[in-house]
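Re: the request from the purification team.
They wanted to know what the chain is likely to look like in 3D before they choose a buffer screen. I agreed to run a prediction and write the result into the notebook, where they can find it.
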Amino acid sequence: MIPRLLLPAGASAAARPLLQGRALRAFADGYVAVLLPAYLIALGLGTWTVGLVATATLLGSALATLAIGAWGHHVHHGRLLPGAAMLMAATGFAFAASSSFWPLLLVAFAGTLNPSAGDVSLFLPLEHARIAKAAEGEARTALFARYSLLGSLLSACGALAATWPARIAAWTGLSTLAALRCMFVLYGLIGCMVWLLYRNLPEPDEERHKAPAPLGPSRAIVIRLAALFSVDSFAGGLVVNALLAYWLFQRFHLSLAAAGQFFFWSGLCSAASQLAAPLLARRIGLLNTMVFTHIPASMCLIAAAFTPGLSVALGLLIARSLLSQMDVPARSAFVMAVVTPEERAAAASFTLVPKSLASAAAPGIGGALFASGLLAAPLVACGILKIAYDLAIWRSFRQHPH
């Protein structure tokens, strides 16, 4: 159970189940991102399928999130969240039972698998809207930081769980493929646990807040933000965790266990950095926190692409992790601050859609570049595009009140 101390002063206890659910989902996402390429290769599928499956997951998540933004205000998100948890459970069980490419691609598209470091699922806008109601002002920024912190921390622990298939195979005598399937069964069971948490969320008539509404007065600013976020999302899609793991496998012949340990420490660094995000935002503002931490992180990624030694490359990637996710709570709070309360659910959906939609084609492109031998190209392109996004959003909103 999440301790009461994890909730910032001024935040409602109603946010606690959301933090617990985020933690469980992040753990599952953490090991799936590392194991996904290994699982597809163990099934005998080609290297290019890693990018295509990642693309399908992001595209499906984008369309689901877009549907939430367009029509979700007709159904209270307290009812949608348990449904999303049931979909997560079905995704894990179906992926474990599939062996050929097309069923796997269909499950990836319709389900909730996440090949990236951040959350890109339909859970995100639903949870963001409820978290935004659970606190105001600086407490809201701090609550989003706790939400992001749990995501990074448990994702790191999940990455460490990527070593479990080898242990399962050694202890039980199962094949490596069967042990990998067990991890996707565990993903489905975690979805069941999330459903148990979310089925007890307050019903609509128990809440005294205004009903969510479609975009209205804030439509123009949301469209501007969505356009800018799409650039950042496409860039990030070139180097999602599943592809970054594959890059480490190919470039430095890293083992699956060593990759899991790297993503564990990388996730811990991301989690630690998000503790500092509210403090930094209080001193320099939400927008400056987003931009001035993101640019150095992108420079580290570009440098890692050309580093010949494993230790230096991992050091640069760890440095990137210390900075690249610090903008996550600041950006979430920024979006919630610049729209009206009634529009928050719709704004969250329409600004988060590019997180999946614009990046949906990127893993396929990144996978194709890797397959053609251009191992540095996705990392360089990601860094350059992210720097361009940071400069553009700072110029567009530096004088906007928030």
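For the purification team: The two ends are 33 Å apart (CA to CA).
Please add any questions underneath this entry.
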